[in-house]
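Pipeline run #58 for the internal structure catalog. This entry was flagged by the ingest filter as a single-chain record with no existing model, so it goes straight to prediction. Upstream metadata was stripped on purpose; only the residue string is passed forward. Reviewer on rotation: M.T. Logging verbosity set to normal.
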Amino acid sequence: MEISVIIAYYDKVPNLEIVLEAFNKQTFTDFELIIAEDNNDPKTEAFLQSKKEQSFFPILHVNQEEKIGFRKTTMLNKAVRVASGETLVFIDADCVPHQEFLKEYKKNAKNGEFLFGRRVLLGEKITASIYKEKTASPLPFFSLL
């Protein structure tokens, strides 16, 4: 496995649905997804079980009880321990990757260096459309301008 993508997630299955759809369209295919859930919601587990069969990449799920409060970093550390990839990529569950995201990440990764990127806020109208259609592709280029 070349890349382990670790997705920080909390309680928004519609976000996760769109993100998984985007990863199913990646041009780079040697990766696994690890959902690091700072919660233990049965809805998330059921959703991920249904998606595991529809995805060409492995999906792992690590979680914890929510009772103690916000523990995102604890979950990320737990996800790192189960990762099998040579390279780790961290994103949040509300960030939808472009189809070339992992290809470009792999191309630009160098040993001993960290890469980072910025997200693009699409605005309320486009975001509402993404949730309604449950897909981020194709995004209307001219409306992004």
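catalog note: The helical segments are 13-23, 42-52, 72-82, 101-108, 124-133, 141-144.
catalog note: Residues 105 and 117 are 10 Å apart (CA to CA).
status: ready for reviewer M.T.
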